[in-house]
Amino acid sequence: MIISRRYEAFLSRVCAGPEGSRPRCYKALLSGICAGLLAAPAYAQTTVIKFATLAPEGSTWMKVLTELSQDLEKKTGGKLKFKFYAGGVSGDEKDVVKKIRIGQLHAAGFTGVGLGLVAPETRLLDAPWLFRGRSELSAVRVKYAAELKAAVEKGGFILLGWTDLGSVYVFSKNPIASPEDMKKEKMWVWEGDPIAQAAYAALGVSPVPLSVVDVMQSLQTGLINGVYGPPLGVVALQWHSRLKHIYPLPIAESTGAVLVSKKFYEGLPDDQKKILIDVSAQHLKRLNELTNAENDKALEALKKQGLDLAADPGPATHGRYEALGATARQELVGKLFSAELLGKFEKELATLRARSAKKS
């Protein structure tokens, strides 16, 4: 280690004394300072996990993630924490995936679109008109947790936890009462989202593909007049301010996930890995509980703000949409997920529904 001349002069003054004692004092102080400089980083170094999300500042998402980071920092003795890039400042999810792969970012909260870029098989969780509510989604996600986790790891990421984003509704400027009405609207589709594209194809709708960050401006200019999303997300992004109607039958139950780069994760000490997994599981469980409750509240709030929620179209229309969903899923077999995985999901749902029918 090289010590500057200023420190050498300081040591010389401190160690001034009898000729025979000076070298010993000098060497002792020098050794102590060097040891301190070498040891300091081991106690002071903090690893920062650079984390991107579309969730805006002030949202429930960001409040819980901030608490997660604080808890993580506390339990690792200040050695591990998050730095958040909220509100889409890091770009669309496809941009975020690229940045994580080259090391500019380390982790992110993804919707199904970003998740699908990492592990296409997981998009089956977002399949149109597959689940009849969040309880079915949760049950299937638990049942096939190992397969889904393996798919994420194959894509180069570690799953820190699933996130419930909510039931996906269609919001529009003009009223929609049937699949035919949707064909008349200038519907938005998230650019690069094969699931939504397949759903619209089954409906015979030709949507306008746009990045999620371009939706608001496109609503303002009239390029589009219909969007889809969970109520909480639509409110957070302020899309609802440009729309008047809500179609009552959800397209899907939207799943997201919090992922961290596998390469980054494997570079952490084992004790920090465990703490990161445990703390994330705890806080993301709470986030899901809050998100589900707030989505219900957001839907009610939108109705109070003047958006019209149409009447339920009835069992026949439900059945029609489920048939369209089956068509859309078959189109994606071999492209996103296997026929085997689709068969497992559909079999489990049939079992769950049969069990539920017996109870009622």
What does this structure look like?
- With 360 residues, the protein is α/β, with parallel strands linked by helices.
- It has a single domain, classed as 3-Layer(aba) Sandwich (D-Maltodextrin-Binding Protein, domain 2).
- The protein is 53% helix and 17% strand.
- It has 15 helices and nine strands.
- The strands form two sheets. Strands 1, 2, 3, 4, 7, 8 and 9 form a seven-stranded mixed β-sheet that branches. It has a two-stranded parallel ribbon with strand order 5-6.
- It is globular, with a radius of gyration of 27 Å.
- The relative contact order is 0.14.
- The N terminus is likely disordered.
SSE topology:
Blueprint: H1 5-14, H2 22-44, E1 47-53, H3 60-75, E2 80-85, H4 93-101, E3 107-110, H5 112-118, H6 134-143, H7 145-154, E4 157-172, H8 179-182, E5 188-190, H9 194-203, E6 208-210, H10 215-221, E7 226-229, H11 231-236, E8 245-261, H12 262-266, H13 270-304, E9 308-309, H14 315-332, H15 339-359
Parallel strand pairs: 1-2, 1-3, 5-6, 8-9
Antiparallel strand pairs: 3-8, 4-7, 4-8
Helix pairs in contact: 3-13, 4-5, 9-14
- The CATH superfamily label reads Bacterial extracellular solute-binding protein, family 7
Strand content: 15-25%
Radius of gyration: 27 Å
In DSSP terms (H or I, runs of 4 or more residues), the helix count works out at 15
The 3D shape can be described as globular
The number of distinct structural domains comes to: 1
Assigned CATH architecture: 3-Layer(aba) Sandwich
First and last CA, distance? 77 Å
What's the β-strand tally? 9
